[in-house]
């Protein structure tokens, strides 16, 4: 449903003032920026995606959509853009070039398919899909329609993460690694993320997707995975999306390692440590170090982004992907490996036996 400006007036504001506030911002006729819409106005969109759009030099926001009409009204008034509670109606009524998709995981496929139908490019919050079968269908749909889709994995465009291989080349042959991505959420059962039906799973497919992406980027797809999952962090609550996961990965080359993922274990920690025959590379969110095998630091590289600078660069980069001046570092077909990895994790946990992600592909 489209929310016209006249419905946005609060009891304290005169209708005439509300109309003035909601009037679209004047756009210069020679404005070459791409027009963008946002579907999903939850915490992620309000705290990260919308501020990034405001800072972008290549994109301007023209419409927002969420199933909650109150939130839509607030953002329509604040941003002076069109507002909708039905994304299908927004696609049919508005003209825009790209859409940022920040919806619960189980809704993402429907929005991508709608975007493909209208030839609109997609910047999608992770994960790409909830299952490998869904991912394969969406890959075909994106390729048939000719749209660009990029999964929003900010680390792919972070200079710290991009420098990993330069340092890893100096540590000899990697033979073991360990990674962890943990945070504390007081109630893992809360909201749609507590249900495997709506989230596709728990910390493996949700927050763990970032760490899985780094493993695939740096080390490739493992040959075998064993997995242990927990839903026991809050025995007083009922939920089936895992709160904690311990994954063991092995490669036929002899490389092996483990990943600890948890949405109940604080403090927030993000780390990947790869050990080679001649040294160690240790990666954090905005710091990377090369160390000796004895633990002595050889070199450290730091990044100190301020505000939404990193996110704004991601939006600008996607605009360049759309115009063909940059490659897509996180396109649909590449994410078939991610979903094969996730599928292998869940099968290994169910069967209590190793699973090969390659077999899912």
Low-confidence stretches: 5-25
Percent helix: 25-40%
Which structural class is indicated by helix and strand composition?
Answer: alpha/beta
The share of residues in extended strands comes to 15-25%
Order of helices and strands: HEHEHEHEHEHEHHEHHEEEEEEEHHH
Largest sheet: 8 strands, mixed
Mean pLDDT: 91
Strand order of the largest sheet: 8-9-10-7-11-12-13-14
The total of helices stands at: 13
**Any idea what the radius of gyration is?**
22 Å
Number of strands: 14
The end-to-end span amounts to 40 Å
* Morphology call: globular
Describe the structure.
Helix content is 34%, strand content 25%. An 8-stranded mixed sheet has the order 8-9-10-7-11-12-13-14. A 6-stranded parallel sheet has the order 3-2-1-4-5-6, with helices on both faces. It has 13 helices and 14 strands. The chain is of the alpha/beta class.
Question: Which features would summarize this protein structure in a list?
Answer:
eight-stranded mixed beta sheet; alpha/beta; 361 residues; 34% helix; globular
SSE topology:
Blueprint: H1 15-22, E1 34-39, H2 43-55, E2 59-65, H3 69-79, E3 82-84, H4 87-93, E4 98-101, H5 108-117, E5 121-125, H6 132-145, E6 149-152, H7 159-162, H8 164-168, E7 174-184, H9 196-199, H10 208-219, E8 224-230, E9 244-250, E10 256-262, E11 264-276, E12 279-283, E13 287-291, E14 297-302, H11 309-323, H12 335-351, H13 357-360
Parallel strand pairs: 1-2, 1-4, 2-3, 4-5, 5-6, 7-10
Antiparallel strand pairs: 7-11, 8-9, 9-10, 11-12, 12-13, 13-14
Helix pairs in contact: 2-11, 5-6, 6-12
């Amino acid at each position: 449903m489209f929310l016209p400006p006249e419905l946005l007036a609060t009891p304290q504001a005169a209708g005439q003032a509300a109309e003035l506030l909601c009037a679209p911002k004047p756009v210069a006729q020679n404005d070459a920026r791409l027009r963008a819409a946002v579907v999903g106005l939850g915490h992620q969109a309000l705290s990260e995606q919308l501020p990034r759009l405001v800072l972008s030099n290549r994109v301007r926001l023209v419409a927002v959509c969420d199933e909650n009409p109150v939130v839509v009204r607030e953002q329509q008034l604040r941003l002076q853009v069109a507002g909708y509670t039905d994304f299908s109606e927004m696609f049919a009524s508005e003209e825009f070039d790209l859409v940022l998709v920040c919806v619960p995981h189980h809704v993402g496929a429907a929005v991508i398919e709608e975007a493909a139908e209208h030839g609109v490019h997609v910047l999608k919050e992770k994960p790409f899909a909830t299952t490998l079968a869904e991912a394969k269908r969406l890959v075909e749909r994106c390729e048939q329609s000719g749209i660009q889709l990029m999964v929003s994995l900010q680390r792919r465009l972070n200079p710290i993460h991009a420098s990993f291989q330069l340092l890893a080349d100096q540590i000899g042959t990697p033979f073991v690694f360990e990674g962890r991505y943990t945070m504390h959420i007081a109630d893992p059962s809360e909201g749609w993320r507590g249900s495997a039906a709506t989230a596709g799973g728990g910390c493996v497919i949700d927050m763990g997707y970032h760490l899985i992406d780094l493993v695939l980027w740096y080390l490739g797809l493992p040959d075998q995975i064993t997995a242990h999952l927990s839903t026991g962090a809050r025995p007083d609550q009922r939920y089936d999306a895992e709160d904690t996961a311990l994954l063991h990965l092995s490669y036929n080359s002899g490389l092996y390692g483990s990943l600890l993922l948890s949405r109940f274990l604080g403090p927030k920690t993000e780390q990947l440590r790869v050990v080679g025959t001649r040294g160690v590379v240790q990666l954090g969110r905005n710091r990377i170090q090369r160390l000796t095998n004895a633990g002595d630091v050889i070199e450290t590289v730091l990044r100190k982004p301020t505000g939404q600078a990193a996110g704004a660069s991601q939006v600008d980069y996607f605009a360049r992907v759309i115009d063909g001046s940059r490659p897509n570092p996180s396109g649909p077909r590449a994410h078939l490996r991610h979903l094969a990895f996730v599928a292998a994790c869940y099968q290994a946990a169910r069967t209590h036996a190793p699973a090969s992600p390659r077999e899912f592909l």
